[in-house]
Amino acid sequence: MQNLGIAITGSGSAVPATFLDNHTLTELVETSDEWITTRTGIRQRRLAKASETVTELASAASRQAIAMAGISPQDLDLILLATSSPDDLFGSACQIQAQLGATKAVAFDITAACSGFVFGLVTAAQYIRTGVYQNVLLVGADVLSRWVDWQDRGTCVLFGDGAGAVVIQANQKDYLLGFELRSDGTQNNCLNLAYAAEPTQLTQEVNVGKGNFQPITMNGKEVYRFAVQKVPEVLDKALFRANLSVDQIDWLLLHQANQRILDAVAQRLNIPEHKVISNLANYGNTSAASIPLALDEAVRQGKIKTGDIIAASGFGAGLTWGAAIFQWGR
């Protein structure tokens, strides 16, 4: 019988060694440790050096996940990289493939900002459920420090760099129990890392746009309102599809954007604090990396055990949001 279910069998993570705490941030912008902590829950963030790349962080996280799953890079059929900050606009997944020596794997990037990991998990599952691929590596990695305006205290206090990875394998029993994905492009202007073009005259009749991406801009109030309203809703829908009730969840694993969002979502769903996974105090918002980074940490600390039911939700730019209910291990 063909294995058309999925199991998540390994996890890994990697962060840069350099960290910037709130106290040091006060030297860059007018803010305070107390202001940042009470509003976000973030105490420090890891930042990649100019010489460090998304590909390196992603490859380091991937090696750990592959080792935990007990397979080799040559066993991989597919590599999905969820990122909004690739080293190369043509994509960075193929560089990961080369660094790992995963010669059989097809590799490509997915861009869905802070929802990227959840969107990637669902994408990986479709390839496995249709019998096309057996072993998929899903990586969430971002180095958003490249794109932060370090004079804008509304955004520079939030973001950090990192990578997290999981190995997803074909399995007789399906451990992706339910999911729901959503997008709303009408609210796109709430959170952007936008390209700005300068007209460049080639000939008298022809001009093209040349330029660069501008630093991250965010309407914090709107994003907060969106997350607190939409995330409980999408988790409810995914739980309904999984035929589970909220009290059957072992862990709530949200995109690590802001502790106030985590608290508000848990409160709205009546999920007790001890079931909420949070590590944003140490890493800040690492975008597509945040869910797999927090997952890997909890697995390696022995908090998340085989068979535990995890309700995960990512939300962010696009606007995009989604939830996936899965059991850890197999």
TrEMBL record:
Domain Beta-ketoacyl-[acyl-carrier-protein] synthase III N-terminal: 108-185
Region described as ACP-binding: 256-260
Enzyme type, top EC level: transferase
EC number of the protein: 2.3.1.180
Catalytic activity of the protein: malonyl-[ACP] + acetyl-CoA + H(+) = 3-oxobutanoyl-[ACP] + CO2 + CoA
Gene3D superfamilies per record: 3.40.47.10
Active site positions: 114, 255, 285
CDD domains assigned to the protein according to its UniProt record, in alphabetical order: KAS_III (cd00830)
Domain Beta-ketoacyl-[acyl-carrier-protein] synthase III C-terminal: 240-328
Biochemical pathway: Lipid metabolism; fatty acid biosynthesis
Keywords (A to Z) from UniProt: Acyltransferase, Cytoplasm, Fatty acid biosynthesis, Fatty acid metabolism, Lipid biosynthesis, Lipid metabolism, Multifunctional enzyme, Transferase
Compartments it resides in: Cytoplasm
Main location: cytoplasm
NCBIfam families named among the record's database cross-references: fabH, PRK09352.1
Domain comment in the entry: The last Arg residue of the ACP-binding site is essential for the weak association between ACP/AcpP and FabH.
Subunit structure: Homodimer.
Family according to the record: Belongs to the thiolase-like superfamily. FabH family.
Main function: Catalyzes the condensation reaction of fatty acid synthesis by the addition to an acyl acceptor of two carbons from malonyl-ACP. Catalyzes the first condensation reaction which initiates fatty acid synthesis and may therefore play a role in governing the total rate of fatty acid production. Possesses both acetoacetyl-ACP synthase and acetyl transacylase activities. Its substrate specificity determines the biosynthesis of branched-chain and/or straight-chain of fatty acids.
Protein name: Beta-ketoacyl-[acyl-carrier-protein] synthase III
Native organism: Brasilonema bromeliae SPC951
Gene that this polypeptide is encoded by: fabH
